[in-house]
Design a protein that fits this description.
745 residues, alpha/beta, Penicillin-binding protein 2a (Domain 2), 25 helices, globular
Amino acid sequence: MTPNDPEQLSSRWVAGITGGLFVFGLAVLVKLYVVSIKDGPALRESMRDRVVQERSVPASRGNIYSADGQLLATSMPVYELRWDASVVDEERFALHAQATAKGLQRLLGEKTASEWFRFLRDQHRDKKRYAFIAKNLSFSLYRKVKDLPMFKGSPFTTGLIAEERYTRLMPMGMLAQRTIGYWRPDAKAGLEAAYQSVLNGQDGKRWMQHFGKGQWKPIEADYEVEPRDGADIETTLDTRIQDIAHHALLERLEMYQAEHGSVIVMEVATGKIRAMVNLGREEGDSIYTELRNYAVWEKTEPGSTFKFAALLAALDTADDSNGSLLSPFALIALDTTPAQQRRIGELRSRSITRDIKPFSPPPIGTARRPGRIRVGYLSADFSQHATSQLIVEFLERRDSTRFETFLYSHSIADGSALQQRVRAACEHFVDVNDLSNLTVAERMRSDELDIVIDLKGHTRDSRFELLAYRPAAVQAAWLGYPASTGAHFIDYMIGDPIVLPLEHAPNYSEQIAQLPLNYQPNDRHRPLPDPTPRSELGLPEDAIVLCCFNQTYKISPFMLDVWTAILQAAPNTVLWILAWDRHVLVNLRREFDARGVAAERVIFAPKAPPARHLARLRAADLFLDTWPCNAHTTASEALWCGVPVLTVPGETFASRVAASLVTACGLPDLACKDAEAYANLAVALASEPQILQGVRAHLEQMRMELPLFDSGRFTREFEALLLRMHERAQAGLPPAPLPAELAPT
């Protein structure tokens, strides 16, 4: 037989194919073993989780009533109906399909009886498991559909699937609409938001089965865990007074063709609000509706006036039942005492945490886990925000061998470079936007934090009330809110000897913890662009430019009087002010005109991005601060740009911030004893440009050596203070005042 004999070649092919089939079969057997024996349990569990899941069943939200017993807001169940046609047998369908089709036409319309019959016939023929029938049905209409011949009986024989949800209704229509407000995951306002924890109830649980294409239906008729409905609340509003006030305001708005207006009726003796009406219209619209709550939304009248009156009325009574409606931040810029600020903080804190039960402390003798001190920061401002501008380098300079840092963020994801720096600076960034307060606190507890620091207090978008659960052994407030929180669950308020002197301890529910030089960190990596030419900013080249870039809610009539006196005594000056919107611009121009200040002496600047703002700020000569609410980050920006800040410290934290900052720049004389000294010094500096230039040169030349901008030193001092808090807690000692101590260099 030759090597190329056909019979020999054929035998080789058969042998090769046989061998290949054997190897393939062996591989199949191995794979079957892996799938069925080794991975089988996990695959079966995964498949079960995909098909059957425990789903949440929303609770019915509580009602809101007026003082006279009228229903202002309620939750009504609505139903979405679907049909599992596969469970209906042929006999039942034949007997009841025609009558059911006629009933659906009568109850729901949308289709003729013939069309409904064809729909039912097609779904039944194709054994459709989740055919849509109707949505947003009331309970009574749902019951009528359920009583139709083919749907009457057990869902296991009829196939009718009813999915219940609740929708919020306001029986009184637009009456007090913005006061009642709303609550959604993406937005909140009014009473609905303030009393969310009371109204919301406790969701139930139910097992649901997946039928594909994102469709689920209940496995059983009953709940595994019954939902617990929310509690009702009764307001102080009187619908009769509310109605009268509503129509009276509407009449006046239409008469004067005004943009918007507000009416508040308050019992002076009790501080109870009997009516709150807010009507406005969009530009070009003739219909007035409740667009927003102008009574508290606006920084100018009527909001500013009402807030002050309402807050002071609330402070004069021991009743804190309406504490959740109070705005402690509103008192910061007003002429109030530190005691009043503590009082309003206490009222609000007690009100928003009354239903929170703290976690049980660890059992006696439980040892702390070994390792670094764990510090958590809670804020809504880990984004392009002043707070992040201040703390970013401090976070970057942390001693990560001693401290492990967690950021619990309910900030917007703005994607800014600043947000990225903040996130990258810490070991853990926890987005808690979609988590409840309880869940966030539980997460903090599971992270075994030693210290948690709130950066918001009673400011916008704060969630500091979740610290009432006591997730950490030591809890402190810092930076965001310049006053006592009034919260018993906050152990320390972090400041420095100027903003928080130890003798001010009676004004704080927290223990005072002092940093030795300044309480405010700064970022030395922030931009320092070249000055923008004055000609591009509308500023005169030959004048001394006095500026104030504070938000306008800090500018009182008193401050306008002081600035007017300075302008009159120093004719070579102009005043440069930030105009936040057209209303501010109009109002400030009117006020200066009434004081006899020529229009060309006051120049308004629009809002600008951070880098552009710093560039233009360098064109100013002197920053005129406001009180009782000082510039905070804005003052640091001015000093960073070489612009001296003139201020007057008062008794409150917010009125002493700028004094702390200028002292940390080696310029304590810029903190004047009173308004007269402030005006005299401003005039003197404006009249002696060489002296003013010397002060500016000090800031420019010493910038990187000044304590205010020495980020490394600040970080060491802050961490030393945290260590003192931690050591007291570990020793079983209660919080106590922590006077300033210089950290080792």
